[in-house]
Amino acid sequence: MARTSRRRAPRRGSTTGFGGIGNFLRRPELIGTLLVVLAAATVPYLLPFAGVIADARDGVVQLLGLHVFSLVVVLASAGILIGFRWTAWVSRQRRHLIGGFAFLGVLAGLLGRWYPDRAVGDIDLAVHSAGGDVGRALASWPAGVAVWILLGFTGFALLWPKTAAAMLRGTPGAIGRSARWLWNQHLYRPLGRGLRYAFTPIARLMQPKRDLDPEFTAARPGSRRAVETVAEIAGPATPELTEAVAAAAAEADPMSEEAAPARPAKQIEMDMETPADELRHSEDGWQLPPITLLGEEQGRESRTVDNARRAQLIVDTLDSFGVDSSVVQINEGPTVTQFGVEPGWDVKNKLVTERDATGRPILDDDGNPKTNEVEVSRTRIRVNRITALQNDLALALAAPALRIEAPVPGKPMVGIEVPNSSTSTVTMRGVMESNSYQKSLEKFALPIALGAGVSGDPVVADLATMPHVLIAGATGAGKSVCLNSIISGLLMHLSPEQLRLVMIDPKRVELADFADIPHLTFSRIVVEMDQVVGTLQAVINEMESRYRKFAKVGVRNIKTYNDKSAGRSLMPYWVVVIDELADLMIAAPYQVEQQLVRLAQLARATGIHLVVATQRPSVDVITGLIKANFPTRIAFAVASSVDSRTVLDQGGAEKLLGRGDMLYVPPDEQKPKRVQGVFVSDEEIRAIVGFWTADRFANLQPEKFDDMLLAAERDVEQLAAESGGPGGGGGEDPLIQKAIELAREHETLSTSMLQRKLRIGYPRAARTMDELEDRGIVGAGDGTSSRRVLLGDESSTSEGRTLVAEAADFEPVAAGVVADGGDDDEESNSRKLLKFPKAFDEE
User: Fold this and answer.
1) Is 74 contained in some domain?
2) What CATH number has the domain bearing residue 662?
3) Residues with Cβ < 8 Å from 458, sequence gap 6 or more?
4) DSSP labels, 629-645
5) Which of 28, 250, 526, 824 is 20 to 30 A from 679 (CA-CA)?
6) pLDDT-derived band of residue 458, with 50, 70 and 90 as boundaries?
7) Measured between alpha carbons, how far is 766 from 785 in angstroms, rounded to an integer?
8) 332 within 8 A of 307, measured Cβ to Cβ
9) In a domain, 351, yes or no
10) How many Cβ atoms are within 10 Å of 274's Cβ, its own excluded?
C-alpha cells in the first residue's frame, strides 16, 4: 500500500525568521497588557520626579496640556478592549469612537484659549495654555482655527449623521446644494471607507487564532476537520468506515446540521449597483432595501398669506352671527389647514343712570339724565354655537366641506379644518426619514408609516400594538393605496425571517404586485373564494400551535419567546391582509365572521395580526362582533354618515376629501385623527419587490407552509360534508342545523324560543325563522308568536310547503285582520293566512 505523504504542521511556539513577531502579534492579550502597563507607567510622568522622567513629562504636558490625562484614559481603554477581544463592539462603535476623538480635538482648542494660573510639573499653564501647544495652535493660528472648525463639523457629523444630513437638506439655495454635494462626494463616503480601512487590521488582530489559522483549526483534536483528515489518511471509504466517521463527526461537533437548530443562510455579497454604505442589514442574514428605492419628498408650497386671509374671514363670519372668537393657532397640513379658534366671551351690559349723593339723576347739558353702560355678566361662548355655524363658515370660505373638531384634544380651542386650494403629496420616504419614525424603529416591532397629520407631523404606528386594523372607504378614496403603503413599509424594515404575509385578494389585481416576494407564508396569494375559509383555518391552526409552544417554554407572548430563543431561529410575525371583506362575507358569512373574530380575540399574543379592508361598510359586512374586536380603524371618504358611524361609531368620514384623506382612530384613543395617507407609486412598489426578488437572494429560500394550508382545507371540507353544507362549501349557517333539531322536539316554534335556546339575538333568530319557513319546516306566521312545525312524514312536509306557497298568493283584506274564507274546516282556516312583511332591522 502506498504511503500517503503529508506536510507536517509547524509546532506552536516555534519561530522561523520573523515568526516570533508574528506569534506575538497573534496574542492580543499581550498587547493589551502592554498598553495597560504603558498607561500606568505614564502616571509617574505627571508626578513631580526629577531627572529624565521629569523632562519627558514636562515635554508631554507642554505639548498636550491637560489632555495628558485624557491620553492615560485612552491608552487604558484601548488595552482593555484589545485584552478582552471586544471586536464586535469596536466594529459597531467605530463611527462614535472617531467622532469622540474629533471632539477631543475641539476640546483641546477650547482649552487652548484658557490660561489658568496653575502649573503641572514645571510647566506653567498660564504661558502654554490649558490645552498645551497643540490647543494654543488650534485656537490662535489661522490654519489651526480651520482645522479646529473642521474637527467640530466632523465630530458632529459622525455622532449625529441624520441630524447633520437634515440640516444640510434644510440649507437653502446654492450654499445648501454645495454643502450636500461636498458631504456626499468628499466627506461621508470617503470617511466611511477610511474608517473601515483603519479598523480592519485592528479587528483581524483581535480575532482568536483559531479563526485565522486554518491549519490550527484542522489540527484541533476532536474537530470535524480532524475526523475528516483521519478518514482521508485511512484510505478508500467503505460503508462501515463511512458510518463510523459520520458518528464520530456528529459526536465531535454537536452543532452539526442534524443536531443544530435551523439558522438563516450566510449573508451574501451586496450588488455593485447600490453603494454599500446605503444598504442596511438585518441581523438574520438578509439585506434590507435602501431608502433610495423610494422617491424623494417634494417641497410644499407656502400658503402664509392665504391662511392669514382665511383666519380673518373666519373671525369676521363668526362675529357677524354674534359669536366672539379669535384664531390662536394655524396648523398647515398637506391637504387641510386647521385653524384653532378660541371662543370669546358673551358679555351682557345694561344702562345705569348716574345719580348724585342725594339720589337725584345727573342731567347733561340738554337736560337728559346721564347713563353709563355697566357689565352685568360675562360667560364663555358655548362650543355648540360655533359648530352650528359649520355650513355658514363653509359658504364664507367657499370650501366644499368643513370639519370641526370640538375641542382639539389637549388644547383649549376648537379646530376648524379647511381644505387647501392645492394638496401636497405625502411620500413614504419623507415619513421614514423623519425623527419620529427613526425613534420608533427602536421600540416598534412592526412599524408602519400612515401619513401626515393636519399640522404636517408624521403619523407613525406599531401594528403589533394596534393589534388589528379595519380599513373602510368608497371606491377611489385611497383604501388600496393604504394597503400597499402598509405592506411596503413592512417590507422596507423586515426580512422573511422576521415577517410572513398571508394575502387574500378576491379581486385578483389589488395585491398582484406582491405575488413573488419571499415574505409570503404560502406559495401564492389566495384569490379563490372557496379557499378563503381554509386559509383562515390554517392561520388559526398556526395560532394554536404557537400557544402550545408558549406553554411548553413558559412564556406569554411572542416577544418573550423570541428573547428566550437565543441561538435558535426566531418566530416570525404573521400579518394577514384581506383586501375586500364584503366578498368574503357574501360567500361564507358565518364561517368568515367566526374565524375573524377568533383570530382578533386570541392571535395578538402569538404575533399574528389582521389588516382587513372593505369598500362597503354596511352592517352585514362589518358586524358588531367584528367591530368589537378591531379597536384600530381607518375610514376614508364614504358615501353617507350612516357608513361613517358603521366604521367609526361617529360621523365625519362623509366630509373627507378623498385621495388619501382619512380619519384614523388609534387603539388608545376614542376620537379620530385626520391624516393624509402616504402615497406609494407603482414604480416604488416594483422597485421594492424587485429588490426582494433579485438574484442576490437566490440561495435563501424561506420555508413555505403549503402543507398546512392543504391540511386545513381538507379539514374544512370534511366538516362541511358532515354538517350537510351545500356542495361541501361550508356556506350554511351552523345554527340552522340546531334550529332544525329544536323543531323536531316541539310542535310549535317561535322566535323568542330560538333566542333562548340558541342564545342569539333577535335579528339572527328572525333570519333563522325565515330560513326554516323557506325550507318548509315551519308554517307561515299567523299573527301570533308561535308557528306550527311541519316536520314529520313526507306528506306533512309537502303540505306545509303547499300552505306556504298558497299563503304567498293570498291577498289580505286589511293589515292585521284574518280574511274571511267562508269555510270552517281546518284546511280552509290554514289557508286564511296573511302575508306579513319581513322588516327586521339587522345589526
Assistant:
1) yes
2) 3.40.50.300
3) 430, 431, 434, 436, 437, 449, 451, 452
4) T--EEEE---SSHHHHH
5) 526
6) very high
7) 11
8) yes
9) yes
10) 15
For cell 426619514, the residue is 433
pLDDT single digits (tens) 495-510? 898 999 999 999 888 8
Q: Could you tell me the pLDDT band of residue 368, with boundaries at 50, 70 and 90?
A: confident
**What's the CA gap between 643 and 646, in Å, rounded?**
5
Give the whole-angstrom CA distance, residue 371 versus residue 363. 9
In DSSP terms, which residues pair with 634 in a beta bridge?
471, 664
Instruction: Give the pLDDT confidence score for residue 174 in this predicted structure.
Output: 54
Q: Which three three-digit cell numbers place residue 830?
A: 290554514
Please tell me the distance from the alpha carbon of residue 617 to that of residue 471, in angstroms, as a whole number: 9
The whole-number pLDDT of residue 732 equals: 57
**Residues 104, 106, 110, 112, Cα dihedral to 10°:** 80
Has this prediction a pTM greater than 0.85? no
Using alpha carbons, select from 292, 271, 101 the residue that is nearest to residue 683: 292
Cβ atoms of residues 479 and 678 within 8 Å: no
Rounded Cα distance between 740 and 721, Å, is 17
**270: which 3 cell numbers?**
451586496
Give me the number of domains the chain comprises: 4
CA 821 to chain centre: 70
The last residue of one of the domains, among 653, 673, 708, is 708
Same domain, 615 and 690: yes
Q: Can you list the alpha helix ranges (DSSP code H) found in 616-750?
A: 624-628, 641-648, 682-692, 706-723, 734-744
Distances (CA, A) of 550 to 157, 562, 638: 45, 10, 42
Q: Residue 806 belongs to a domain with what CATH number? A: 1.10.10.10
Q: How many CB atoms lie within 10 A of CB 144?
A: 17
Q: Positive or negative CA dihedral for 253, 256, 260, 266? A: positive
Cα 653 to chain centroid distance, Å, stands at: 24
Residue 748: which domain range?
733-831
| Phi, psi for 331 (deg, rounded to 5) | -115, 110
Do you know the residue count of the chain?
843
Cell reading at 163: 441630524
Is beta strand 608-614 parallel, antiparallel or unpaired with respect to 469-472?
Answer: parallel
Residue by residue, what is the 3-state secondary structure of 9-55?
A: CCCCCCCCCCHHHHHHHCCHHHHHHHHHHHHHHCHHHHCCCCCHHHH
Please state the three-class secondary structure of 533-586 as a single string: HHHHHHHHHHHHHHHHHHHHHCCCCHHHHHHCCCCCCCCCEEEEEECCHHHHHH
The model's pLDDT over 762-805, given as tens digits with 9 standing for 90+, comes to 778 888 888 888 888 888 877 667 888 887 544 344 444 444 44
User: Helices 142-159 and 161-170 meet at what angle, rounded to 10?
Assistant: 110
- DSSP-assigned beta bridge partners for residue 338: 331, 417
